UniProtKB/TrEMBL annotation:
InterPro entries: Na+/solute_symporter_sf, Put_Na-Bile_cotransptr
Pfam families: SBF_like
Protein name (database record): Sodium bile acid symporter family protein
Membrane-spanning parts: 59-82, 102-120, 162-180, 192-214, 246-265, 277-298, 310-331, 343-365, 377-397
Region listing for Disordered, in residue ranges: 1-53
Cross-referenced Gene3D superfamilies: 1.20.1530.20
Any one cellular-component term (Gene Ontology): plasma membrane
Keywords, ordered alphabetically: Membrane, Transmembrane, Transmembrane helix
UniProt feature, compositional bias: Polar residues: 1-23
Length: 414
C-alpha cells in the first residue's frame, strides 16, 4: 500500500500537499515509492493488458501483501513464542534490561532525529493547547476509566486476583509509550513530529503525575488494595532513573540525529532511503518487546495466574484499548487534521511498561516478588494488545489519511 504523505510534515493545514526533496527523505523513509518520480506516467501510452488472475491467485497475493505490511506483528508473535520457551538467565536479566532500554530506544530516536525536520519539531513543541489536550487524555481519561472498570468488575472477592486488579489501575496511570508511538505513527502516515513532542512531554511528567495518580487510586478503601504495603514517600530514585533514561536514550540521540542530518544530508538520505536502514527503528522496538516478555516469563509471572483470571484480564485490557483509541479519535477529529488525529489516537491509547516497573518497585517496598510480578502482568499483556491493535489499525488509518488528497483533487484544489 502506498503511503501518500510524509507524516512528519503533516500539520493542522490539511491543504498542504507539495512534495519537496526534504519531505521525501525526512518523512516516509520506509516507502520512497510513495512519492512521484520523474519517470512516472511520462509516455502516456497504455500498458498492455495483463491476463486476469484466478481467484486463488488473488487470495494468495492478498495474503502476501497483508503479511508484508504486517511483518512487524508477525515477527513480534515469533519473538514472544521464543521468549516463552527460552529465557535469559535470571542473573543476567538486569543487565539485559538496562542494555535494551537504553540502546534500543537510542537507536529509534537517533533515526527520528535524522528524519524529523528541526522546524517541524520545534513548531509541535510550541503547541501548548495540544499539550493540554493530549496530556489530559493520556493521564486523566485513561486512569479514571481504568479505575472505574476495575471498581465495577471487582465485586467478587474470590474470583479475581487482587494483584491483577491493582496492576490494571497502575497501567492506566502510566504515561504514553514513547518509542513505539513514533514507529506506529510513521506507519499510519500520522504527524510523527507531534508524537515525538507529546510522548516526550508525557514521559517527563510521568514520574510526578503517575505517582500522584497511583497513590490517589490505591489509597481508597477497597478490598483489592489490602495486599499493598504503605507507599514509600521518597521518590528521588524514581526521578533519577526516569530522567537519566530520558536524557541518554531520547534527548541525546535525537539531538545527535539532528546534527548529523545537518552536516551530511545526502549521506543520511542514501543510508535511510537506499539502504533501508530506517528499518532499524522497527527492529529495535522488536528487541524491546522481546526483552519485556523474556523478563515476564523468566519471573514465572504467567505460571501462577488462573486461566479464568487471565482471560478476564485480557478482556478488560482489550476493552480499555478500544475505548481509549475511539474516544481520542472522535474528539480529535472535531478540530485537528487527519495526521494530527492519527498521532493523538496512538498517544492516548498506548502505555509504557518501562516506567511502571520502577514505580511499583519503589512505591510498594515490601510487596512479595510473586505479587510484584502479578501487578506488572497487566502492563505486559497490554503491551501486546496495543502493539497488535495499533499495527492492524495502520491499514485503515493510512487509507483514511490518503482519502483527503483524493478529495482535494476531486475538488480541484490539489
Amino acid at each position: 500500500m502506498l503511503n501518500t504523505q510524509s507524516p512528519e510534515l503533516s500539520q493542522n493545514n490539511e491543504s498542504s500537499n507539495g512534495y519537496s526533496s526534504s519531505r521525501v527523505w525526512a518523512g516516509e523513509v520506509d516507502n520512497p515509492s510513495a512519492f512521484p518520480t520523474e519517470h512516472a506516467d511520462v509516455s502516456g501510452l497504455s500498458a498492455p493488458k495483463k491476463p486476469p488472475r484466478s481467484g486463488l491467485t488473488r487470495v494468495l497475493l492478498g495474503i502476501g501483501e497483508l503479511a508484508m505490511d504486517q511483518w512487524f506483528l508477525i515477527v513480534m508473535g515469533v519473538l514472544i513464542a521464543l521468549a516463552s520457551q527460552i529465557q535469559v538467565p535470571q542473573a543476567h536479566q538486569e543487565l539485559k534490561q538496562t542494555v535494551t532500554n537504553y540502546l534500543a530506544v537510542a537507536v529509534i530516536f537517533f533515526i527520528n532525529g535524522c528524519t524529523l525536520p528541526t522546524k517541524v519539531l520545534v513548531e509541535n513543541l510550541s503547541r501548548w493547547k495540544m499539550h493540554i489536550f493530549v496530556q489530559v487524555q493520556c493521564y486523566l481519561l485513561t486512569s479514571s476509566t481504568s479505575y472505574g472498570v476495575v471498581s465495577a468488575t471487582a465485586t467478587n472477592h474470590q474470583f479475581m486476583d487482587p494483584a491483577l486488579l491493582v496492576g490494571i489501575v497502575i497501567m492506566g496511570c502510566l504515561p504514553t509509550a514513547i518509542a513505539f508511538n513514533t514507529i506506529m505513527t510513521n506507519k499510519a502516515n500520522g504527524n510523527a513530529a507531534l508524537t515525538v513532542a507529546q510522548s516526550t512531554i508525557g514521559n517527563i511528567l510521568g514520574p510526578f503525575v503517575s505517582t500522584a495518580l497511583i497513590k490517589l487510586y490505591t489509597s481508597t478503601n477497597v478490598w483489592y488494595t489490602d495486599i499493598l504495603p504503605e507507599t514509600s514517600s521518597g521518590f528521588g530514585e524514581t526521578y533519577r532513573y526516569v530522567f537519566k533514561q530520558l536524557g541518554l536514550s531520547v534527548f541525546v540521540p535525537l539531538a545527535v540525529g539532528q546534527i548529523v542530518v545537518k552536516l551530511f544530508p545526502n549521506q543520511v538520505r542514501k543510508v535511510l532511503l537506499e539502504w533501508k536502514m530506517s528499518k532499524l527503528g522497527s527492529c529495535a522496538l522488536l528487541v524491546l518487546i522481546w526483552s519485556t516478555y523474556d523478563g515476564a516469563f523468566a519471573s514465572n509471572a504467567f505460571a501462577e495466574i488462573p486461566s479464568n483470571n487471565m482471560v478476564f484480564t485480557v478482556f478488560i485490557l482489550v476493552a480499555l484499548f478500544c475505548l481509549w483509541i475511539t474516544i481520542a479519535f472522535a474528539v480529535s477529529r472535531v478540530w485537528l487534521s487527519r495526521e494530527d488525529t492519527i498521532a493523538v489516537s496512538y498517544l492516548v491509547s498506548t502505555k509504557t511498561p518501562a516506567m511502571g516497573v520502577p514505580l511499583t518497585t519503589i512505591m510498594f517496598v515490601g510487596l512479595s516478588a510473586a505479587e510484584q510480578s502479578r501487578t506488572r502482568l497487566p502492563m505486559v499483556i497490554f503491551q501486546a494488545i496495543q502493539i497488535a491493535g495499533s499495527s492492524l489499525l495502520t491499514i485503515p488509518l493510512r487509507k483514511w489519511q490518503a482519502q483527503r488528497k483524493f478529495e482535494e483533487r476531486g475538488d480541484g484544489t490539489a
